[in-house]
Amino acid sequence: MNPQDLTERIDRAIDARSDLLNSDQTTAIRLFNGFSEGCPDLLIDLYARTLVLAAPEVMQQILESIQAHLVRRLPQVNCVIQKMRASHDPKRRRGIMTFGNNPATQIQEHGIWYAVDLMMNQDASLYLDIRNLRKWLLENAAGCFIMWL
Predict the structure, then answer these.
(1) Could you tell me the CA-to-CA distances from 58 to 26, 80, 89 in Å, in that order?
(2) What percent of the chain is predicted at pLDDT more than 70?
(3) What's the predicted TM-score (pTM) here?
(4) Start-to-end Cα distance in the chain
(5) Strands 79-85 and 50-56
């Protein structure tokens, strides 16, 4: 896929999710799910004001172009982390800061604050694609608890 087509797909995905962006810039959302949006190797997540771009190393040059576009498009972004899936270098799998500094350390979702360490693992340990499940649990599991022995 050429970079222009990919940028257009990313812009359409962001436009479709614009209602999830909160004005205080504390939320976390998946801006682009490549698997369902035409580029299976690419994920773009926003954690507060930190973008996380995840792709295989062969997409490194394309990621640079995507990052430049997104930093212009989303002026609230103050940090970008690129994660190279399947890299032989564990540091590149966990992520390299390629723009700004001070990645987000907490996000708020449905009124709950979550601590995040965006460079601790290959993933961020808060799976954004199950955001609606967490909301459903909050709405439907009030008063329920599980006792672990």
Answers:
(1) 32, 19, 14
(2) 96
(3) 0.89
(4) 52
(5) parallel
- For residue 40, give both structure tokens: 């299976």
Q: How many residues does the chain have?
A: 149
Domains in the chain, start-ordered, CATH in brackets?
3-139 (3.30.750.80)
Q: How far is CA 68 from CA 7, 15, 40, 146, 147, in A?
A: 11, 18, 21, 46, 48
Phi (first) and psi of residue 106, to 5 degrees: -155, 150
Phi-psi region of 127 (alpha: psi -120 to 50; beta: other; left: phi over 0): beta
Tell me the backbone φ, ψ of residue 2, rounded to 5 degrees: -80, 155
pLDDT in tens, 116-138: 999 998 887 788 888 889 889 88
Model pLDDT for residues 50-69, shown as the tens digit of each residue? 999 999 988 888 899 999 99
